[in-house]
Design goal:
single chain, alpha+beta, Immunoglobulin-like, TIM Barrel, 3 domains, five-stranded antiparallel beta sheet, 7 helices
């Protein structure tokens, strides 16, 4: 084998561009770039960054150039990917005797940035900032939110220590790294094992404690306390893994905070869930809680590509665009939704082709079509979604006067009541005032739902 110089350029700029690359032979052998291992771990917080396993395929991230030992005279499959706005390359190449260079160009089929859109991955973990920047460039992500989260570490001395990867790289409201239209911002991911998880973005200082509750701690804190601190620090509070069952609760205090307006957005990821998410999102919207959607890869291992689920935002800044609900989340298709009174128009595209788009009004599909679809919708809320060839969904757009549905209110009130019961019967408090504060928040959320109804 000869060492082959590989160069991937942007077909428009003719400059090398970061990409995700895979070269393999017909017998399944994969050829990594020099300096990269042919195999790598895929467990949580195991050597995360620079490579990814998608299904059974191993891929490597490069900055546009690399050297790879490759055989001549045999067909090689060359695969190159760079996010949903570039047409992926999947070619077969046979190198000639003595050939030591391979040149390919990857092309955009659209450029949403010139239309004012930005792409944001709202949450990833355990990558070094430079690895996150490379992967973000290669996946065509403009803003990657790298969140510090506590992680146990078993040392050689037999002791398990709690570490917080990337906390020392905290950057808050400024990028930790920024170049070529891409930045990595380091903030925190704050969790309780039962009451909920929040990604606290764009704060000017870290928000502590990073965790509370569990076997070794009391419950003398609250999700709402984190959100309040986040807002005082000019940040954005995102409910992560919303409505996933934990400790017998679905929603927990994070739902209470959402109802009370202390949560700014709901996170959607591409990972498996115990509970389908969309029915719960629609119940929130039906109850008049119009939280926008944000997409996040939730990447914490080499089993997930950065930007697998991403947020498209359009506004003066990505933070304000999320606050205003000018977003859609996607695993590939690009969506648009416009409303003129009760007349709504939605469209969807994927790699230059039209896709089937559904208009959803007050939880019901009212129109379906390929490419572009229009409908007259009743008062309440409306959104557009796509399920094939991949998932995409816009945030809700209020239409006319809000119409709140009794069935949704009843379900959400039941969840808040279950949280109240957990606080009363299972919460571990050393400060009675903290317990009382949580109970009062539950009561306020119940009252707000009743008032809305």
């Amino acid at each position: 084998m000869l060492t082959v110089h590989v160069r991937i350029t942007d077909a428009q700029t003719y400059r090398p561009t970061p990409v995700r690359l895979r070269i393999s032979s017909r017998d399944g052998q994969e050829f990594p770039p020099l300096g990269r291992s042919p195999e790598f771990p895929t467990g949580r917080n195991e050597d995360v960054g620079g490579h990814v396993r998608c299904g059974q395929e191993r891929w490597w991230y490069i900055d546009g150039t690399c050297e790879i030992p490759l055989p001549a005279g045999v067909p090689l499959r060359i695969q190159v990917a760079k996010g949903p706005e570039f047409t992926p390359i999947d070619d077969t190449v046979t190198l000639g005797p003595g050939q030591i260079s391979l040149r390919l160009a990857i092309s955009r089929w659209t450029n949403s940035r010139i239309e004012g859109w930005q792409t944001v991955d709202a949450r990833c973990h355990f990558l070094a900032p430079h690895a996150a920047w490379l992967e973000a460039q290669a996946e065509d992500i403009a803003v990657a939110n790298l969140l510090a989260v506590p992680q146990p570490f078993l040392a050689h001395d037999g002791q398990t220590y709690i570490t917080v990867p990337n906390l020392l790289a905290f950057s808050g409201q400024v990028p930790a790294l920024a170049r070529d239209g891409c930045c990595v911002v380091v903030n925190t991911f704050n969790t309780h094992p039962v009451l909920g998880k929040v990604a606290l973005l764009h704060t000017h200082r870290p928000i502590f404690p990073l965790t509370f509750g569990g076997l070794d701690d009391t419950d003398d804190w609250g999700i709402a306390d984190w959100c309040d601190q986040c807002h005082r620090k000019k940040g954005l509070a995102v409910w992560s893994e919303p409505f996933e069952p934990a400790g017998g609760l679905v929603g927990g205090e994070a739902l209470v905070a959402a109802i009370l307006g202390q949560i700014d957005a709901l996170e959607i990821t591409a990972g498996p869930r115990k509970n389908p998410l969309l029915p719960w999102v629609y119940r929130l919207w039906d109850a008049g809680v119009f939280l926008p959607l944000v997409g996040a890869s939730g990447k914490e291992s080499n089993h997930t590509a950065l930007g697998t689920m991403r947020t498209y935002v359009r506004g003066a800044t990505w933070v304000e665009a999320i606050r205003c609900g000018s977003t859609f989340v996607t695993a590939g298709p690009l969506l648009s939704l416009t409303a003129d009174g009760q007349r709504v128009c939605a469209s969807g595209r994927f790699r230059g082709e039209s896709v089937t788009v559904e208009i959803v009004a007050n939880g019901q599909v009212v129109a379906t079509g390929s490419g572009t679809v229009e409908a007259m919708v009743p008062p309440g809320w409306v959104a557009a979604r796509c399920t094939q060839p991949a998932f995409a969904h816009t945030s809700a757009v209020p239409i006319g006067s809000p119409v709140r549905h009794a069935a949704a209110v009843v379900v959400l009130r039941k969840l808040v009541e279950q949280t109240r019961e957990w606080i009363e019967t299972q919460g571990r408090f050393t400060q009675p005032k903290r317990k009382q504060a949580l109970l009062e928040r539950c009561a306020a959320a119940m009252q707000k739902l009743a008032d809305n109804h």
